[in-house]
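Let us work through a complete example step by step.
Step 1: write down the sequence.
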Amino acid sequence: MIRISLLLFILTVLVSCSPKYKIERIYHPPTDKQCIEKCSTDYQRCQNICQKNYSDCLEKSIERAEMIYSQLKREYRIRMEEYYKKYDLYLQRSEDYRRQIKTLKEDYKFYERLCSQYKDKESCQKKEKVKKYLKQLETNRPLPPEKPPEVEFSSVLQNERKACSCDCGCREIYDACYQSCGGKVEIKKICVEHCD
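Step 2: predict the structure and record it as tokens.
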């Protein structure tokens, strides 16, 4: 346990002290400025379409989440009905179990008294038999059923919103256009934190 804790601590220190980088693009312009203006226009159009699609997706995510949520609620109600049936059965078994344990403990005391007072061999054997059976029974105690987790609309909506993306690759399309115009795109990885 100590080794695992130490290893986790070392890993945490290494990760927290490791350098952090950001990607920066340096654009070396070509001579043809009109070509770059077209790239900029296309980039802006791509961004506008992307933003609209993202907004539409977020708007529709509520509708999708409501449909999924209502289906999950129906399934949850079915699972809860099954749970209540199992729980009722568990309560019955627990009551039977409690009564059985009580009876066996009373039997055990009875045979134990006979065994110690009269040294009756048969009573001593029965006492041991009841003791053994009690031990077995105590390890097979009835367990309550697991209650199904409740469905929350917020988590369903959050999952649906994760499917929406606001990255349509417009920057990469612009870079390709920029280079086709004769420009050069230089990508640099710059250390911003914990640099050596």
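Step 3: interpret the result. The mean pLDDT is 87.
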